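To: structure desk
From: M.T.
Subject: fold request, one chain
Message: Could you run this one when you get a chance? Sequence is below, nothing fancy, just the single chain.
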Amino acid sequence: MLKKKSNEELFSLYKAELTLKIRNEKNLDTYHQVLNKFQQFLDGEPPSSMLAKNFLTRWSKRKPRTLYKNLSIIKGFLDWYGEEIDLKVKIPHQLPEYVEEKNIQKLIEAIKKKRTHKGSIKRDLLLVELAYGSGLRREELANLRVSDILFSEKSLIVRKGKGMKDRAVPLPARVMQLLQEYTEGMDPDSKIFNITPVAISDKIRRFARIAGVNIHTHSLRHAYATRLLERGANIKAVQELLGHSSIGTTEAYLSLHPKHLRETVDLLDKLPDKPESETAVNLQEPGETTTVPVQVRLEHWRRLVILAEELETCLQFPDPGFGKAYKSKTGGKFHSSWYMNESRVSFSADKDELLFGCLMSHLDSEFPGFSDMLEEFEEDSVKLISGEDASEARDDETAINLRNKLHLVIERGTFKGHCEICRDWDQAKPG
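Reply: Done. Structure tokens follow.
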């Protein structure tokens, strides 16, 4: 059917379909631009994989992300048309840039000392302070209105952020005060900065050049995320504050700070207390302290969150799937691989057992009897798999109960495990 239509009809139909699927006007405009160029390139010839590859070569010397984005647009069109394109573009894995706090202070000083347009100093200072204190993207800063500031809650609402999603972002007291002073008397419906996203980028770039630092608007967002994680923030909370759809994007910030890497590598210079064969992870006595590197603590905490999420997923499996899924997620290591004794836990040096036991110790301290309920739940599921005593298998209420408790822990993101790393984290993290 589509093969018989002219290119003008084809592209018109596909664009109409995109209008229903893509709600972000900027993204829709990007799709239209690339498709218009492709239609012009075809010059009346029917779309094909070979012509599409030839068309995409015009971006071969551009950044991989640009080629990847345009390939995705053309591939979507060809899939809809009924043609396949066997072309892949790899995007290099790159860490977010690290911005030192002293450089941000230099940027702020450059704004304070500017010689022209002094009437806009207050606005430009607020722009930088808000970007650094909230992690907002430049489009989000440009679209921010006075009515989006919740002064009583000391927070703001991002309207139609990336992916057309709204989110709430609490603000530091200093930034909140600056906002209150600047917006006093302004119309609630007016935009706070009343400048375009491009103008915001130009301003930051110009002030950075004067200050002699390499900073752009998105650098302030990177700095916001990095500082939060450096100071022990919950990575799930940081993900929500930044509006990341995937926690993997947020995790990239964990590897940024040179100090974290230095602390980890410095472990190689320390002599082990015991031979490797005798290594064990045990509880400390009350009152003892250790110095576990921040990066190690964050990684341990991150893995706890992932394990809790995986266990929560297992509990969503209907009988008899849970037993199989549970065995897969825990590597077949159940409570026989760890034991409880008056809220203290001992583990072998096996990392999976340590992690699973640490999570269970936390859940038992939060919800007494959680591990016993989980073990009974697992045993009943295994009976279903083997066909034994299926009539005694647990009911769905148990699964829901366990899952709700796990969900609370995941959302809260604070673990009180009894292993050495968690104990040290509770003592060392900022108040």
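Reply (cont.): The chain has three domains: 2-81, 101-242, 263-268+280-428. Let me know if you need anything else for the meeting.
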